[in-house]
Amino acid sequence: MGRIRRVLVAGALVVAGVAGSAGWAAGDAQVAVTGPPPGTAAWRADRVDGEPLPDPVGSTPRQVALFMGRLSPAQQHGLARRHPQVVGNLDGVPVPLRYEANRLAIAATHDPRYTRLAAPDRQILAFDPRGRGQVAEVYGELPHATHVAVVVPGSDIDARTFDRANDPYGTPAGMAAALRGATRGEVAVIAWAGYTTPVGVGIDAASGRLAEAGAGRLARFTEGLDAVGAPDPVLFCHSYGSVVCGLAARHTDASDIVALGSPGMRAGSVTELGTRARVWAAKDPSDWIDDVPHIEFAGLGHGADPTDPAFGARRIPAADAKGHTGYFAPGTESLDSFAAIALGDVR
Fold this sequence. Notes:
The chain starts with a helix and ends in a 5-residue tail after the last helix. By secondary structure, it is of the alpha/beta class. Helices cover 35% and strands 12% of the residues. The model is unreliable at 1-26 (pLDDT under 50).
């Protein structure tokens, strides 16, 4: 029994190595960023016409949306100026107001790591400078979209690496831009780096601890999209991001969930995900993830391979994608299939 345990745990640690796009480097334990955004204490102490503001923890996104809908434009902009970090991250706030607030919040950091995010043409839907930094960016016109997709990335992604140029299709920004282009601009795509991801190889990447924290944030984020009238999103979940999506699946209203380069979704089958969404899976033959033993033992490893027919997901062709980060490369079958799913063209 001791030998079996050692083999299984070793296999789970291999999951950590392959799930991280940074390769075989030592991993560092990360502290998950959770809870309300910075500035919440001042927000709670504020009033509009004597009325308290919706609590960032206790209020639902729909309650936030209803409150904001009762305010005049001047009152809304006043809140964005006084509390940019709260308004920029509060699900249920009108989308353009979040863009405005996040430009202010980014500028207020005076941190050169984030300067590029404050460019006038960028639509930053969420920004949190705590920890390694989290960010969500919209490609397209979200307030008027008829189709919405959300890219959920895997390991080694934060506000600094969100849009790195040396690996364009391995970043949420690059994936979102490629998907937007493949849909001929008909889908609003959100690059969502809204959780603390694992770094390199280590227990974090092999365990579900960070994914559990991320799943709660993703579920609330999608609830916020619904509260502002956006259509049900398609979730594109890469690598460790598919663990996040697997844990969030039963709590989102996503129309489709796509797992690509997945180490597992913490479920033995589509049925165990507890979702009404259609579930899809892609894995190319040259992806490192193909060498990972799909196990879960003592909290390590992420379970069944979503591309295994027994899992029950719909298989997406990906034979011409290259490596762990090539699924969104232009001209690949996988990207063409992703576009069709995002557009609702596949039944």
